[in-house]
Recover the amino acids of this structure.
């Protein structure tokens, strides 16, 4: 159990530090690379949660495909990064009044969230120590490709709708990014 | 690990992503911050799915990933089109509807 906690904190630290680097880096290429590191940490957390298929998908689809798409666009645009600091300084939220108001709001929300979490029962019990993991790929596939039935709603309809969504996104991306010849 | 740890971690990641969207003035970094937020929510789904011993949390994660992929494709196409017209990634450069 102790090694589990150690792994959790290691992966959580990787995810959080990666995310912080994404937000603080000036160069978008470094941001994308930091986000890939963050996704590897999240993938380790999915393994700890006994969801190996999600962990593999996280690496292959997210870190492999989506982030490479981002990297391609960043390098294609050859983004000028010298004026990025100037952009951030000209942000309306950097005015003193706005900063104070938003900081007070953020602290209040964090306090509220911590209070709610501390009052919720069951927060300190381990994740499903009493339940077996339902995470085999066969279980996932059966649930994903079954219609509404005895054991709750299936996801087949949503799955098919997703394919339409992807086609629309693909066509839309091509149409929007195309060079106009007028 | 207690489920509260996963929830706190997820909330932390979501806050970092939200801060990135609000504070950074670079369209690509803002899109990356949206991805961080989506992943924070994914972590919550998987943790609760494990807690309840069901596969539904993981399946919803797949749908979130699909939507994230579509969002990234369309968002980056928009970024390319905007960059082509204004030679800038600063959202302040795109405040006019017509020119």
């Amino acid at each position: 159990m102790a090694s589990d906690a150690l792994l959790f904190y290691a992966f959580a630290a990787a995810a959080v530090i990666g995310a912080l680097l994404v937000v603080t880096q000036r160069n978008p290429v470094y941001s994308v690379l930091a986000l890939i590191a963050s996704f590897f940490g999240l993938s380790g957390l999915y393994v700890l949660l006994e969801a190996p298929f999600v962990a593999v998908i996280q690496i292959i689809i997210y870190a492999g495909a989506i982030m490479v798409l981002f990297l391609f666009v960043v390098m294609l645009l050859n983004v000028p990064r010298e004026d990025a600091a100037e952009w951030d300084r000209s942000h309306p939220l950097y005015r003193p009044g706005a900063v104070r108001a938003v900081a007070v709001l953020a602290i209040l929300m964090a306090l509220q969230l911590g209070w709610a979490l501390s009052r919720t029962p069951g927060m300190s019990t381990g994740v499903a120590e009493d339940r077996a993991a339902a995470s085999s790929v066969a279980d996932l596939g059966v649930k994903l490709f079954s219609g509404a039935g005895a054991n709750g709603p299936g996801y087949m309809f949503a799955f098919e709708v997703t394919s339409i969504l992807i086609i629309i996104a693909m066509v839309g991306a091509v149409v929007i990014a195309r060079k106009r010849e007028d | 690990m207690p489920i509260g740890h996963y929830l706190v971690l997820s909330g932390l990641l979501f806050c970092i992503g939200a801060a990135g969207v609000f504070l950074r003035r670079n369209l690509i970094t803002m899109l990356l911050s949206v991805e961080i937020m989506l992943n924070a929510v994914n972590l919550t789904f998987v943790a609760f799915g494990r807690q309840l011993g069901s596969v539904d949390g993981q399946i919803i994660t797949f749908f979130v990933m699909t939507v994230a992929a579509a969002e990234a494709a369309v968002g980056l196409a928009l970024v390319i089109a905007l960059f082509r017209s204004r030679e800038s990634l600063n959202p302040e450069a795109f405040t006019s509807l017509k020119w």
Remarks:
- The first helix of chain B runs from residue 3 to 23.
- The mean pLDDT of chain B is 87.
- DSSP finds three helices and no strands in chain B.
- The two ends of chain B are 56 Å apart (CA to CA).
